[in-house]
Amino acid sequence: MCGGVRYEITATPEYAGYCHCTRCQRRSGGASSLSARLRKGSFTITEGAELIHAYKPDSGFEKAFCASCGSALFSRNPEDPEEIGVRMGTFDQDPGVRPSYHQYVAYAVPWEPIPDDGLPRHPESRPGR
Q1: 129 belongs to a structural domain
Q2: Is residue 62 a contact partner of residue 54, using CB atoms and an 8 Å limit?
Q3: Disulfide-capable partner of 1 in 16, 69, 95, 105 (CB 3.0 to 4.6 Å)?
Q4: 33 is in which domain, residue-wise?
């Protein structure tokens, strides 16, 4: 949001999807979070690395955010730091990938129905993750 953190990706993301888990709801302040999974080795922080802080839960991916403005930036697998999901709202231009699924729909909020967009819906994590 503030522009303090800048990054570059050198390859089209592998895939993108909506997550409706309660952790994503709380982190984003919305009904879901839309992220793109990057190809390993394609992500580089170009500016503002010192502004990046992370929430590191006991299990699951760590959640990186900007310490200056609080914007959610990306998530990273602590066991494989090259496994990164970037929040699609942070892209400056079209990343070349479209959402292809909804996951954790068993936890979707009742006040915002999941749109009938034809994408597969998974009660828990997307298969093959």
Answers
A1: no
A2: yes
A3: 69
A4: 6-110
